[in-house]
Amino acid sequence: MVAGGVFQHALRLLLIALAAFALSGCGMANGGLGVVQSSVSQHTSCPEAYYSGPVWAPDGDTIYYSFQRGIGIGSEIRALDTRAGVDRLVATGGKLPQVSPDGAWVLYRNATTLHGDRWDVFLARADGSETRHILDITSGTTAWSPDSQRIVFVDAPDGDANLYLYDLATHASAPLVVSVGSDINPVWSPDGSQIAFASDRQDSRLIYLINADGSAERRLTEFNAVCSRSPHWDDPEAWLPDSSGLAFTRTCDGYRVVQIADMQGKLIDDWSRLRHQSQWPEWSADRSQIVYQLNRNNYYVIRAMNADGSNDRELAVDAWSAHLAPDGKRLVVVSHDPNGLTALYLMDIETGASIPLTSNPGNGVCFH
Question: Cβ distance 295 to 279 under 8 Å?
Fold first, then answer.
């Protein structure tokens, strides 16, 4: 440990404690936002690190995320217990963790080519044990079924991207959607009965639905004749919590905006009223709140609003990733720290108050 390292560490913990004290009046369930402390030793001469892809475990306390120590250095999957203040290694050589809905497994992947056209997909127990390679595919797109028994993924073994299902019990894969064109971006409905996906089989990229057993494939969205030039892209983003509708992004004349359709394809909401490009909507479990990203001339902000569109408010600026906790009251955000380095923050979506969860080792001291 370098001279002054203990002082820097103590100072950081003191600042976090003070921030947590300031946030103690936020009225959060389960004891507030909590304080996360470093649980490992410090090191010197650390490169800038990159934090990305944070997702919540169903317990509402643990955040899984990708951590890379520097450019050209292998990435890690790590788990941060926001209540106990413990950060641990789950797996090496992986990115973009996805936790199974039952919390038992972590799915992650790693590009095996420089251009990202081949991906190895791995599965590990939530505690990091039983890690195994399950897929070698052309796309890094995967999604869990709500019962945690299957994984839908995109692969293009013959040139066109199509959808496949991987069964955890049998370790077998089988085609779900095979068409002329590319079928991509699958999103499983919360009740497990349907999968939404995008397909360009009719030139424009539109959204289709298929039952999880492979039956009743049908188109949900139609080409928007208002678009004066290509591309016209519809991409599924998130289902309503009760599976009664689907939020999707429509790219028309280079402008991307969230729209919401019911199961007959009828638009029930259009976020063009926000006057800026929008994407990545996420509903709280009780359907009362929506968190989303707004693009203001390539400057990204995280906002939240009530499900009826009222109380639209800004939560974070210069933030490119955010995910709601299961309780719908807290948010994990990827943004820049005061030194301009990436970091994870925990935020109260009602007040916008936040505390740092990580310290970027690019400042010369590593905490992990």
Answer: yes
Q: Which fold has domain 61-324?
A: Neuraminidase (2.120.10)
DSSP per residue, 110-123: EE-STTS--EEEEE
| Distances in whole angstroms, Cα of residue 345 to Cα of each of 283, 305, 335, 365 | 19, 20, 7, 18
SS3 274: helix
Q: How far is CA 245 from the centre of its chain?
A: 20
Per-residue pLDDT of the chain (368 residues; tens, 9 = 90+): 333 333 343 334 333 333 333 333 332 222 223 333 333 333 334 456 788 889 999 999 999 999 887 665 678 999 999 988 889 999 988 889 999 999 999 999 988 776 667 889 999 999 998 899 999 998 878 999 999 999 999 998 878 899 999 999 999 999 999 888 899 999 999 999 999 999 988 778 899 999 999 999 999 998 776 665 666 788 999 999 999 999 998 887 777 888 899 999 998 888 877 767 888 899 887 888 899 988 877 778 898 998 888 888 888 888 878 999 998 889 999 887 777 778 899 999 888 888 888 876 554 334 33
CB 63 within 8 A of CB 56: yes
Domain ranges of the chain: 61-324
| Torsion-angle region of 337 (φ positive above 0: left; ψ -120 to 50: alpha; else: beta) | beta
H helices of 126-260, where? none
Residue type, 74: G
Contact 113, 157 (CB under 8 A): no
Burial letters for 85-112: b for 16+ Cβ neighbours within 10 Å, e otherwise? bebeebbeebbbbbbbbeeebbbbbbee
Q: How far apart are CA 278 and CA 257, in angstroms?
A: 5
| 239 neighbors 187 (Cβ within 8 angstroms) | yes
